[in-house]
Amino acid sequence: MSLPILSIRNLHKYFGRLHVLKGINLDVQPREVICIIGRSGSGKSTLLRCINFLEEPSEGEVEIYGLRIPAGSRGKEHNRLVHEARLLTGMVFQEFNLFPHMTVLQNVMEAPVIVKKMDKNKARELAEMNLARVGMLFKKDEYPNRLSGGQKQRVAIARALAMEPKIMLFDEPTSALDPELIGEVLEVMKALAKEGTTMLVVTHEMGFARDVADRVIVMHEGEIIEESTPQEIFANPKQKQTQALLERYRSGRSE
Length: 255
What we know:
Elements: E1 6-15, E2 18-28, E3 33-38, H1 44-51, E4 59-64, E5 67-70, H2 76-88, E6 89-92, H3 104-114, H4 120-133, H5 149-161, E7 167-171, H6 179-195, E8 199-202, H7 206-212, E9 215-220, E10 223-228, H8 230-235, H9 240-250
Parallel strand pairs: 3-8, 3-9, 6-7, 7-8
Antiparallel strand pairs: 1-2, 1-4, 4-5, 9-10
Helix pairs in contact: 3-4, 3-5, 4-5, 5-6
């Protein structure tokens, strides 16, 4: 087996006295798609945010593509490592966070030009290629206020891909969308998975997790309580919390 793209060791996160993540250990292999499921408040989104240090972990270690970052460090070297880690991860949020004064193309070009100091012609070519990947090249000259929610999220995915990350992190990317728009975003994510994109996805979309994931991880109260193939998790969940979670989804009850 090849070396993991992402390794997390004994990761803890406290917000004051609140212990949100409790000793998380996780390896993600190249080309692997992992879906993280769990009740709201179980620590799923905080875990993603700790991976690229949008939240500073309290204890433990994150290693991305050989770049090892211990929690709790400070200073210039730590800041440099965090910057490098963010270049290796693409993040797609619940909200789209597109710049309203920029066209679709400009939104996707911005980070490669500003952060990676990429030549504008190369950045344009890269942006157009990634907009084509998500089916949004035809809207490249539009502004975000002319797009549907699903189209905005597809542009946000293209923007993350344009940084050529080693791993894509998705934090409930369909939760802000109207039901009729969810499918178009999930189809893009399915296509990325088929291309071999390494993906860590926090999601409430059980059908996507069942059909696309290589592994499903179940979180409960800041801990990973179960992980296995989708077939095993959905057909034969071992933990009572997993059983209750899946029952809630099957019955259509919200979190």
